[in-house]
Structures are given as C-alpha cells and as structure tokens.
Amino acid sequence: MHSRWQELYKQKLTTPEEAARLVQNGDTIVAPLSNGQPLALINAVAKRIRAGEVEDITYVSGVDVRWFDLYHPDLVGKVTIDTGFVSPATRQGVGQGIFTYTPCRLGETVDMVVRCRPCNISAMVVSPMDKHGFFSTGCNVDWGWETAKTANPRHIVVEVNENMPRTYGHNQLHITEISAIVENHIPLFELPEIPITKEDEIIGHYIADMIDDGSCIQIGIGGMPNAIANFLKDKKDLGVHSEMLTDSMVDLYYAGAITCAKKNFMPYKWIGSFALGTRKLYDFIDNNPLVEMHSTKFVNDPVVIGYNDNLVSVNATFEVDLTGQCASESIGPAQYSGTGGQLDFVQGAWRSKGGKSFLTLYSTYTDKEGNKRSKIVPTITPGMFTTVSRTDVQYVVTEYGVAFLKGQNLRTRVKELIRIAHPDFRDWLKFEARRLNYIL
Q1: Are strands 311-316 and 356-360 parallel, antiparallel or unpaired?
Q2: Which of 85, 165, 213, 310 is the most exposed place for a label (fewest CB within 10 A)?
C-alpha cells in the first residue's frame, strides 16, 4: 500500500505554474496563517494574474510573515487581498485601502469561510507524506486545515516543505483528498528576539504572582509574555491550551514548569493551533507526542477553553477607557492587527473553574509630537475599535498594578483603573470621570 501512495504522489506532483492553472476567474483562495501560506504557489498565481490569464481573484489569509508577489502594486484592482489578522506585510496595504480586513474571532474563522463566503481553492504548506499517505499541516493548522475539510473546495493544493514539522492531533490530509502537490523546501520564518523592557518585567511579575501551580496557560509573543514566562520557571505542573505555541513555552518545559500533569481536560498534552517562533520551537513540536495541534474552531472555542480548570489567559491591549472597554487591534481607525483569539480566551477563561484573563498595557505612550499620553482614557479614542467589551474584561494590568473589573460597577471600575494609571494623569482622569457622571 505504501508504494500505491508513492505512485499517487508522483502523479499529483507538479510545478507551481501548473498547479496555479487550477485557479479560475472569480475564485477565492483560502490559506492558513504565517508559515502555512504556500509561497511558490501563490507567486505563480500572481504571475497568471499579471499575464491576464485569470482575474477577479480573492486571497484570504492572515498573519502574513513574507511578501508575496500577489501583493505587488501593479496587481491592485486585479486581486483582493483579504486578511483576517493584519501583520507588517499587509499593514500598509490595509491602511491605504489597497487590501482589506475581515473582522473575525479566530475561533470563528472556519465558520466565517464555510458559512459566509466561498472557498474555491484551499492551499497550504504541509510536511512530507508519511507511509500511510498522510500529510500533516504541522505548525499551522489554524483555520486552513478544517476549512479544507469542510468548505467543499473545488481543489485542495498542498506545498510540501521538508522543514514543516509533523505534528499530532487532528490536522492531517490524505493524498487522495489532494488535487495537486508542489514542493518548496524553504526555511520556515523565524521571529526575531524581542527585548524585554523594565515595564514588561514589572507587569510580568504582577501576573506571575497570580498564576498558581497547576494552572493551564495561554500566552502570546512579545516582551511582556516573555517576561511573564521568566517568572514562571519555578512554578509546578503548568499546562498548555493556547491558540499559539511559543518559544517561551519550550523554555518553561525544559525548566520543569510545564508538565501538563494537572490538566483536567486532555491531560499530559500541549494543545495548540499554530506555532510561531524560532527553529527551537519547530524542532520541539516535530513528531512530539506531547504536543497536539488542532483547528482554531476547537482550540479557540470558549466552551472548550473553559473545560480547562485554572485557565490563565494573557494578551495585550492598546487602550482602555474608564468603563473597561479594551481596544486591542487598531491605532485610531488604522487597523494594526486583529481580534485574533483574544476575545475567545477572555470569555473562555471566565468559563474556566478558577480561570483568569489578563489584558496588559503600558500606562503611557509618546505621540508623534513627543508628548506623553495616557493609555487609560475617559472614553475610547474616536475611530478605535473595541475588541473586548466592558462586560467581558476581567483583569487589566499596567506597570502600576492590577485592576479587577469583572462584575464591578462604574464607580469601582473608575477607581481601579485610575489606581493603575500613570500618576501624571490620575487627576485628569478623576476630573473626566466626574464630568461623565461616572463618579461623584
């Protein structure tokens, strides 16, 4: 049987240019996040569009970590770049209106495609085929794999990369499901090292002190999550249920802090949906039975998240108003990132027995004129988008402390948020709170 799958592989193996011919006028191509996006195939599609062979194409993806030929200015108006999470590669295009952004929760992205739009071509990077004829979607299961399985695409096209880890969990495609195979063995994108600031260390210490032994963690990337991880190395029996797996989790594992032994849901397993970090992380998850990678529809479901007792979620926000609304994805009206899984895990942590969700931010920022401004404000800055509603937010953390907001009235919220604001802005916030009739 092994030879049968090998023969089928040879029949379906083709060049990126030939695979791109499966794309027809008006098609929507859906790809996963970051390293799951098939560079050679998408660049070949761009070549066909530029040659006038195909038109009216929509490309749906997110967290783009590489520049694609599809994004070139000469293709504006000929292809729609539709991202579910803005990153450096697409930020300028979205800001200029050349590309577009779809507001979405990561846990709902599969349904967003299956129920709200067509998926004609499902395209993704996979690990090499095993002896049973299966490819793993590796470190980028996210929305791509389940979309391919449930959206009834006309074609599934895979780009085999020997550098893509093979991972356990529900994330495999069989050779019989695939229309065309392209090979492109490029190195996976690796995140650069992010420095930890003094404020990161202070905030990290606050949060680490509130994480108990045996907790199940979800933390992202950046200086602040890295600082938190540094303070967790003496914890015991931490678990992992997180949309994204990171280098800092690997460090905690080797420090003996992460064992998953106390997880009550899917014990002894790391549960993730995508991994983004360095080679250290990709090598760790490769063929590691400790790690299971599943679709965001499963990992980011607040109900599923809530099955984990003592689930601790840590995410960053840009701005918080005195009622507790958190704006985490735009600077003014300019889309900077996306909703991602932040709201999924805020709500999931509240469902968790003993769960806690933290939204973190520095107390101030410096504007273009060099003026210091408060990130805790009377009302959300006009044009900014609320990511976590005031009814959902639980803890807000700055370098000046931790504010508990869930279930609190406006007077208490104002008091708590002013307490963790920068001292230079506390009197102003009190004045504005009175003007808004939040306090007497």
Answers
A1: parallel
A2: 213
| pLDDT per residue as tens digits for the range 345-364 | 999 999 999 999 999 999 99
Name the active-site residue from 108, 159, 201, 243.
243
Count the Cβ atoms, other than its own, within 10 Å of residue 6: 14
Domains and CATH numbers, the chain: 2-183 (3.40.1080.10), 198-435 (3.40.1080.20)
Q: What is the dihedral of CA 308, 310, 316, 319, to 10 degrees?
A: 110
Report the DSSP pairing between strands 155-160 and 180-183.
parallel
How far from 46 is each of 20, 54, 79, 157, CA to CA, in Å?
A: 9, 9, 9, 16
Cα separation of 53 and 327, whole Å? 42
What is the tens place of the pLDDT at every residue in 227-236?
898 899 999 9
Is residue 243 flagged as an active site residue? yes
Contact 191, 278 (CB under 8 A): yes
Neighbours of 409 (CB within 10 A): 9
SS3 388: strand
Q: How much of the chain, in percent, has pLDDT values that exceed 90? A: 94
**Tokens representing 393?**
């937010």
State yes or no: pLDDT of 222 exceeds 90.
no
Q: What is the pLDDT of residues 24-79, one digit of tens each?
A: 999 999 999 999 999 999 999 999 999 999 999 999 999 999 999 999 999 999 99
* Closest to 396 (Cα-Cα) out of 331, 337, 313: 313
CB 136 within 8 A of CB 167: yes
In this prediction, residue 1 has a pLDDT band, given cuts at 50, 70 and 90, of low
Phi, psi of 31 (to 5 degrees): -125, 160
CA separation for the pair 188, 266 (Å, rounded) = 29
Give yes or no for a contact between 429 and 332, defined as CB atoms under 8 angstroms apart.
Answer: no
The alpha carbon of residue 425 and the mean position of all alpha carbons in its chain are separated, in whole angstroms, by: 33
CA 291 – CA 389 distance, rounded (Å): 32
